[in-house]
Write a structure and sequence with these properties.
The complex is a heterodimer of chains A (369) and B (300). Chain A has 17 helices and 4 strands. Chain A has 369 residues and is mostly helical. In chain A, the strands form 2 sheets. A two-stranded antiparallel ribbon of chain A has the order 1-4. The longest helix of chain A has 28 residues. With 300 residues, chain B is mostly helical. Chain B has one domain: Orthogonal Bundle (ABC transporter involved in vitamin B12 uptake, BtuC), CATH 1.10.3470. Classes of the chains: A mainly alpha (369), B mainly alpha (300). At the A-B interface, α6, α12 and α14 of A face α3, α4, α9 and α11 of B.
């Protein structure tokens, strides 16, 4: 390897540094939300955070691990259900929300034994069956009163204003925490290996990627995240009705947010969640037509703009707001990209498996969708 | 004797599931697509037939003659304008687009038909509840027997069509390898479109029977899709005769489950589906390790 490779490997660009600082400032402002904003704004932002969690989790599953699930509502509902159970057994409210989500996350592990062996469409609809089964079993619990549902009575211990603020802070904390986890995973070894799995499972396995372990980590994370979103939703709406929490509409929302924002990008689902939030705010009243619009835009985006809005911007301008990938900045003009990429890896960490190269190739991070 | 009667009804219910699953299985076999809007196409056809029967007093069976070509045309268009493009984009995109389409169909139907539950049963007179007594206390519904017979004829006919006609052979060749099929002069695009037309039309046929034997709403589609998918998986993906067996297993499990608990109908079906799946995956895993006998072999 020559001493002057002619390029530098960048994880941070000037833009990504600037936007990371911007995001940090925004978070600090948001942290004081309940003290700064009116009550209805705080409620709306709490909902936005929950949507954002759902979008980021579904994107981690589909966009990074190639697992299209139409059954994540299983965990959304289970998180809320377990939170009610914990609360009913004397755990105080906010710890119960977290414990409920954790337990739902644990339930995903035995489910993963069966489901992760299925491929593509079988996995998608198999998860749907799991969601239906979980829904039916939860409704059998006498505590839930069948489809009538039950309220999280312990929430009455808080004043409406106090509850609003705590919900907000917990949702914000959950969102930031999960974003940080996804960010860390994607920057690390798991990020490259799951993307390799998504792009070609057999090829990934043949070069030594531990396919099942990688998928299971993401599956667990997504289950936990969706469950946390569910228990937070319970904290904001107080009542638990199985039909609402286990409804397929949650999957429709997730698919919409991720497809519109940008499947397989870090920033995409965040943007998708904001767009969904705005659409719901302005068109939610129109009821059914709003849902028709969501379905139709999911179709249109999947067909004509598979990278979503953010993916298109990223591809067009080669920008990346948060430093999740690698990029090469050329110092000499006549350099073969392949050689550069290989050298980049050797220079960076003494030559990891060659597989990791293709899948993280800077901004040419083309999802195979 | 109740049990025998229930068992028999479960088998006949399985005929309905096989009919419903036929199109799903066929489409997966030919195009490797699981159409998540399959159940909604069945409900769409049911709504169209209901509309005709309600407005004109025409028998639903006659209305079906008008609706089947419409469904076939929808299937053709679906393939040409949506699935073809989706397939080119990768294996997962058809799932996303057909899911989006399902949302559009359900809510579009809701916009027109509202949330009322409907049924075609009032439009077919006594036939909806007629039954034949086999012995003094074993009865089978005549509609259920008709549905079972139609399922057998459709699945058998489709199988004969695939093996004994030139179009059937073209479909099989394209399913095997579309690129090579085109090399020997088959128009793969047209074959795919025909296959989609057959699949969606058969969903429409199942939809009519669904609406005759039960009540439906615009949001009934997803549940039917799940039942169809379970029948397909239990019977073995890609096998048309397996689909009939899968439907029967599902129907019997549900009918027996309903004897235990009102919700047992659904729970038993889902559990049987998961058990079959787990069993099949375990066997596959064991075979990959060298067969079942190696488990019992003495270690060196």
């Amino acid at each position: 390897m020559s001493k002057d490779p002619g390029f530098v490997v960048e994880r941070w660009t000037r833009l990504s540094a600037a936007s990371s600082i911007g995001a940090a400032v925004l978070l600090v402002v948001l942290a004081f939300g309940p003290l700064l904003f009116a009550a209805n704004v705080v409620d709306s932002l709490t909902n936005l955070f929950i949507y954002l969690i759902l979008a980021v989790m579904w994107n981690a599953l589909a966009g990074y691990a190639g697992l299209v699930s139409v059954g994540q509502q299983a965990f959304f509902g289970l998180g809320a259900y377990f939170a009610i159970q914990f609360s009913y057994h004397g755990v105080s409210v906010y710890p119960a929300l977290l414990l409920g989500a954790l337990l739902a996350g644990l339930v995903s592990l035995p489910i993963s034994l069966l489901m992760l062996r299925l491929r593509a469409g079988e996995f998608a609809i198999g998860m749907w069956v799991v969601a239906e089964l979980v829904h039916l079993l939860v409704a059998l619990d006498p505590l839930i009163n069948g489809e009538t549902g039950v309220s999280m009575i312990a929430l009455n211990a808080f004043s409406p204003d106090g509850r609003r603020a705590y919900n907000y802070w917990m949702a914000l904390g959950a969102m930031v925490g999960l974003l940080a986890v996804v960010f860390a995973l994607l920057r690390g070894r798991l990020g490259v290996s799951v993307q390799a799995i998504r792009d070609d499972e057999d090829a990934a396995e043949s070069v030594g990627v531990r396919v099942l372990a990688g998928k299971r980590t993401i599956f667990f994370l997504a289950a936990f995240g969706c469950a946390l979103a569910g228990s937070l939703w319970l904290a904001t709406s107080i009542t638990f009705q199985p039909r609402t929490y286990f409804g397929i509409q949650w999957t429709a929302y997730m698919i919409f947010m991720v497809l519109v924002g940008g499947l397989g990008t870090f920033e995409g689902p965040i943007i998708g969640a904001v767009i969904f939030f705005l659409i719901e705010y302005f068109f939610g009243e129109t009821g059914v037509w709003y849902l028709v619009g969501l379905g139709a835009s999911a179709v249109v985006f999947a067909l004509f703009l598979p990278r979503g809005l953010w993916g298109a911007v990223e591809h067009r301008f080669g920008i990346r707001l948060l430093p999740v990938g690698y990029s090469l900045r050329m110092l000499r003009s006549n350099f073969y990209p392949g050689v550069a990429a290989a050298a980049a890896h050797d220079q960076q960490n003494g030559g990891p498996p060659p597989l990791e190269r293709g899948t993280t190739g800077g901004n040419e991070n083309t999802p195979k969708y | 004797m109740t049990w025998v009667n229930q068992l028999l009804n479960g088998v006949l219910l399985g005929g309905y599931y096989a009919l419903l699953a036929c199109g799903l299985s066929f489409m997966f076999g030919v195009m490797r697509i699981i159409n998540l809007a399959h159940g909604d196409f069945a409900v769409l056809a049911a709504c169209l037939i209901f509309l005709i029967a309600d407005l004109t007093d025409i028998s639903p069976f006659i209305a079906l003659i008008a609706v089947l070509p419409i469904m076939a045309a929808i299937g053709w268009g679906l393939q040409r304008w949506m699935l073809e493009r989706s397939l080119r984009a990768g294996a997962l995109v058809p799932l996303l687009t057909t899911f989006g389409l399902a949302i559009v169909i359900e809510n579009g139907l809701f916009e027109y038909f509202g949330a009322d539950t409907r049924s075609l049963a009032p439009y077919i007179g006594d036939f909806a509840f007629d039954s034949w007594a086999i012995t003094s206390n074993i009865y089978v519904g005549s509609l259920a027997v008709l549905i079972f017979a139609v399922a057998v004829v459709l699945l058998g006919g489709l199988k004969l069509f695939l093996t004994h006609t030139s179009l059937g052979r073209e479909i099989r060749a394209t399913a095997e390898d579309p690129d090579t099929a085109e090399l020997v002069g088959i128009n793969a695009r047209a074959v795919y479109a025909i296959a989609a037309a057959i699949a969606v039309a058969s969903a429409g046929l199942a939809g009519m029977f669904f609406a005759m034997r039960a009540v439906f709403t615009p949001y009934s589609g997803p549940e039917q899709l799940i039942f169809a998918f379970e029948a397909v998986v239990i019977g073995g993906i890609g096998s048309l005769s397996g689909t009939l067996i899968g439907g029967i297993v599902l129907g019997v499990a549900q009918t027996l489950g309903a004897q235990i608990n009102p919700q047992g109908f659904f729970i038993a079906g889902h559990l049987v589906f998961l058990a079959v799946l787990a069993g099949r995956l375990t066997i596959a895993a064991l075979q990959a390790r060298g067969g079942v006998q190696r488990l019992f072999a003495r270690r060196p």
